[in-house]
Write a structure and sequence with these properties.
219 residues, alpha/beta, 5-stranded parallel β-sheet, globular, binds 2'-deoxycytidine-5'-monophosphate
Length: 219
Amino acid sequence: MQIAIDGPVGAGKSTIAKECAKRLGIVYMDTGALYRAVGVWCEENGVDAHSEEAVAAALPGISPEIQLSGRVQRVFINGDDITDRIRTPGASMLASKVSSYGSVRAFLLDLQRDFAAKNSVVMDGRDIGTVILPNADVKIFLSADSKERAKRRYNELIAKGADVNFDDVLADLEKRDKDDSSRACAPLKRAADAVLLDTTGNTFIESVDRVMEIINSKR
Ligand code: DC
């Protein structure tokens, strides 16, 4: 079974997808982690993430890998577990940048499709329903009001001890959404056959229940 959940930053994709995968007894894959890992690897290895040419030239030397430790996904680049270094606001912006490059998207395509071919999966991202798994059994496009999404993201970062302020989080989120939706290659957009679910005002459990209803109605 393949379930595609796409949507903008902070719509609750990862927490909702993770919980649905658990209830269904299948695997969850966070595809954003791959773009984050490539962006952070570039930064750590002196590759200019703002130059597609430089990033594309580095790709043959990058070997990303997803491993599951129980239900927790870990991302490796060339054998180095990079998972704990990809959740900073800086990593978010780097991921958004490198994800706009066709070379990077093509590079990460097979890894994502192979994973879905080998596992029943709930996969979240921006282009899962449109590009990665166009024949997914269920496609959901999750959204919510941008202030509410920024508030959720802000709370997550504060809970992790990050030193951030709300206005910066909101501005970063709006910039990322704009960049992710307007890029030429595989932009963030709802697949024609995806169910649109707006989670504004919903609690986490309400959102999970609504997603599960959609999944159950399709299988
Ligand atoms: O979901 P996330 O915040 O971890 O994603 C980080 C960035 O990666 C996001 O700004 C856009 C990009 N991304 C993408 O282009 N396609 C995906 N399937 C997942 C993420």
